[in-house]
Design goal:
This protein is mostly helical and about 270 residues long. It folds into 2 domains: about 5-60, Orthogonal Bundle (434 Repressor (Amino-terminal Domain)); about 80-270, Hypothetical protein af1432 (Orthogonal Bundle), CATH 1.10.3210.10. About 70% of the residues lie in helices and about 0% in strands. It has 15 helices and no strands. About 35% of the residues are buried. The model has no long low-confidence stretch (mean pLDDT about 90).
Length: about 270
C-alpha cells in the first residue's frame, strides 16, 4: 500500500471525512484528497501532524506496505478460559477464586475493551490464566486477578465482594481513584507506593500491565501510549524488584520483566 492508500485507510477506519482531516491540519480538503490519490506527499511537518490526527505512528503512514497482515484482538475464547480457571481452582481448592470468577463475569457483563468488541471479562481471565501458567497457585492472587477492576469500573463495593479479607485488601490496593490531568502524578505515585508494599499486589499489577501493553496498540491513543510507556518505566522496575525479593515468585519476576521490557522496546521502535 502507498502512503496515499495508508492515509485513506486510517482516515476511513477513524470514520473521518477529508474535510475533518483538512480542518485539523489547516489545509484544504483538496490537499488531503491529492495525498490519498498519491498525486503528491505531505511534507514532514504535515505528516507528523497527520499521524497525530489519525492516531497512528508516522512509520505506519509513511511505509509502503507490500503485505498487509491480518490481526486479531483475542487469542483464546473467554468462555473456555472461564471454564479452565474455575476447574483448575476447584481442583486446587481455591474457593475464593472460584467464587470470584462468576462474580467478575456478572459485574463486567456488557462491558467491552477499549476500541473493540472484546468482552471486558477477557482481561481479568487473562490475568488469572497468566498466574496459573506461571504455577502461582494462590487463592487470594487468582481471586484478586479476577476482581481487580470491579470496584473501579463496575461500581461494586469492597465489602460486598464474595471473598476473604486478604483478597479484599488486594483489590483495594489495586483500585485507584479517578484522576485529572492536574493531580494524576500525585495520585499515581501514592497508588504505586502502596502496591509496592505488598508483593502479591505488585505481582498482580505487573501481570495487569503485561496484558494492557499487549492491547494498547489498538486500545489507546498515541498520547496515552506515550503516557503508558513513561509510567511503566517509572514505576514497574520497583514492583518487579519487590516480586523478585520473594523466593516463590522469582521465576515469575524474570518472566514478567522480560515481557514488559520486550514490549516496551517494540513499541518504542514502532512509535
Amino acid at each position: 500500500m502507498s502512503i496515499g492508500q495508508n492515509i485513506k485507510t486510517f482516515r476511513e477506519e477513524r470514520r473521518l471525512t477529508q474535510d475533518q482531516v483538512a480542518e485539523a491540519l489547516g489545509v484544504s480538503f483538496q490537499a488531503v484528497s491529492a495525498w490519498e490519490r498519491d498525486e503528491y506527499r505531505p511534507d514532514t511537518e504535515k505528516l507528523i501532524r497527520l499521524a497525530e490526527v489519525l492516531d497512528v505512528s508516522v512509520s505506519a503512514l509513511a511505509e509502503e506496505k507490500h503485505k498487509v497482515f491480518k490481526t486479531k484482538e483475542t487469542i483464546y475464547n473467554w468462555e473456555h478460559m472461564k471454564t479452565y480457571v474455575k476447574t483448575t481452582c476447584r481442583n486446587y481448592k481455591l474457593y475464593n477464586a472460584v467464587k470470584s470468577v462468576d462474580y467478575a463475569v456478572k459485574a463486567h457483563e456488557g462491558q467491552k475493551r477499549k476500541r473493540s468488541d472484546v468482552p471486558y471479562i477477557y482481561h481479568p481471565l487473562n490475568l488469572a490464566c497468566h498466574a496459573l501458567s506461571m504455577n502461582i497457585i494462590d487463592d487470594e492472587i487468582i481471586a484478586a486477578c479476577m476482581l481487580h477492576d470491579v470496584v473501579e469500573d463496575c461500581g461494586c463495593r469492597i465489602d460486598e465482594l464474595p471473598v476473604n479479607d486478604e483478597t479484599k485488601e488486594l483489590v483495594q490496593l489495586l483500585t485507584h481513584e479517578k484522576t485529572t490531568g492536574e493531580d494524576r502524578d500525585k495520585v499515581m505515585k501514592a497508588y504505586y507506593r502502596m502496591i509496592a508494599e505488598n508483593p502479591k499486589a505488585a505481582l498482580i499489577k505487573c501481570m495487569d500491565r503485561c496484558n494492557n501493553l499487549t492491547t494498547m496498540s489498538w486500545g489507546l491513543s498515541r498520547e496515552k501510549i506515550y503516557r503508558m510507556i513513561n509510567e511503566t518505566e517509572e514505576y514497574y522496575p520497583k514492583l518487579l524488584d519487590v516480586i523478585k525479593a520473594e523466593p516463590e515468585y522469582n521465576n515469575a519476576a524474570w518472566l514478567l520483566r522480560y515481557q514488559i521490557e520486550s514490549m516496551l522496546d517494540i513499541y518504542k521502535r514502532l512509535m
